[in-house]
Amino acid sequence: MFDLKQLFERFCEYSNEKLYWDMDSGEWTKLVLDFFGQEGKSRKVNVESNYMLVDQVWRGTRHEILLALEHENKGDMTEILNKEVEHLIDLRALQKIGIFYPSEGDEKDFLDKALSKIMERKEAIPLQEQYALILGRSTTKAHRRAIRFHLRTCGFPLPMLEWKMVEEKIIFQARKASPEKV
Asked: pTM higher than 0.70 for the full model?
């Protein structure tokens, strides 16, 4: 199994001053998936994109799915729960990461509903899986635009009763290039 805290820290280091809140959704997603793709390859796993509606999977030497990754930076939280979180739940993988951006007011409800969905499935099909959510939101730090990311986990090896807050990082947003004068 991968050290999800270390992976989160590396993701934050990589993303620092590269993302900005109103950048194109496709560019943002590409940057995130490129990071995880590079990480997977550096760990000598086979990285596969868009597998069964999941953005990225890492496969082991026996073609088993070691890690599944889903990223969504737009849409409402109900839609994300019913599509992206469900995709992660449906796929058999040792570790599953969802990267989402709920508003501060929606975060607790999102976490509760995601856990409820996971628990429902776990009762029907008991598997030893670890889930991680990386949640992000716009903020400021030292008078600069920033993004607050935090990592929460649940599941194996701990009981899947609640989300455990693992770590929080604040990264700076990229400074947008000013349009050139013609």
From this structure: yes
